[in-house]
């Protein structure tokens, strides 16, 4: 339908147009290609302010063509290929691309956003990185973060490990934000004793939007890779809705907590390890509880993950068949998000017992996110302990899921699984809870 109307109006993609709506409103912009999904009757227009707007064909009165701009072809190194800049003596930082919008570039002649992963475009989009590090690029994969799998985690871990063996100061992983915290946890477990930081970075707003967070996030991530005194896996993203300060969150202590805010990532049950002051290009440590850099000779790659691990959320009235299904399908481990201290309904005790008796470890976390599992307070918790469940202490549910997948990739012995799940490996377990780390909720009014 839209193509017929565009033909009738005499317009085509990348035309500069003025559209008069039926209510008299006039809109100026560039006609963009339609995505493959959505209402086929909607025209997409890139406005002068940088935002896109969708206009249903039925709302369009008439169209004036003002001109035409040519679309730029996509420039990107192929998947699996590696390039690097000439050495200037600065620390080497390797960027590993997995997907996401942070390496998408705006063609300002057309208003279109396209994926671009090349040194030329990197320096055009983020020129300041030239003065921070000698950049190397590896285009590892190009997927949506919701398509990430444990097998992909293993690939990313191997790429980061090889980068450290090659002598880089740090690794920056470009990643979509939706499942970034899962990958950050996976890298925390898969690379033991890393010699430098692995900074996972993305953007909540694409680079064609005035409110994009891509520039400062990328700058901070490269700075962390080049100069941070600590090692390990971290998420490096905005610390607030304002610009100027970027938080560095431990990979096993971070979670995406908002659908669209630029400060969507929050450290859970722990303070951010550091902050990056963008104006000063300075890393400010926020805790003494960080992993120092070490020798690459001590680094070990342990990137096997068990893909038959499940994360399931308990809810009132949950059917025990949900657990029986996982057992019957041959799952090797189950993480349950319980209520409060880690509770589930009485009817789930039988399938939990069946799972444990069948050699399937069952880990209990809390869906409150903040706080700590304690199965010694109420009767139901004691009943779960007697069945042999593994309390996840203060682990985030997603981290407990990733850790169990990693542990099962190393061993299926039930006693060893229990020991490893209750042993701190990468900062995922704290012996005590800090009440000052609970930061959700509005500020109380002054009295």
Automatic annotation (TrEMBL):
SMART domains: Asparaginase. This is Glutamyl-tRNA(Gln) amidotransferase subunit D. Keywords: ATP-binding, Ligase, Nucleotide-binding, Protein biosynthesis. The active site is at 101, 177, 178, 256. Belongs to the asparaginase 1 family. GatD subfamily. Residues 92-283 form the L-asparaginase N-terminal domain. Residues 310-421 form the Asparaginase/glutaminase C-terminal domain. Residues 11-65 form the GatD N-terminal domain. It comes from the Archaea. Heterodimer of GatD and GatE. Gene3D superfamilies: 2.30.30.520, 3.40.50.40, L-asparaginase, N-terminal domain. It comes from Vulcanisaeta souniana JCM 11219. Pfam families: Asparaginase, Asparaginase_C, GatD_N. Its EC number is 6.3.5.-. Allows the formation of correctly charged Gln-tRNA(Gln) through the transamidation of misacylated Glu-tRNA(Gln) in organisms which lack glutaminyl-tRNA synthetase. The reaction takes place in the presence of glutamine and ATP through an activated gamma-phospho-Glu-tRNA(Gln). The GatDE system is specific for glutamate and does not act on aspartate. GO terms for biological process: amino acid metabolic process; regulation of translational fidelity; translation. It catalyses: L-glutamyl-tRNA(Gln) + L-glutamine + ATP + H2O = L-glutaminyl-tRNA(Gln) + L-glutamate + ADP + phosphate + H(+). GO terms for molecular function: asparaginase activity; ATP binding; glutaminyl-tRNA synthase (glutamine-hydrolyzing) activity.
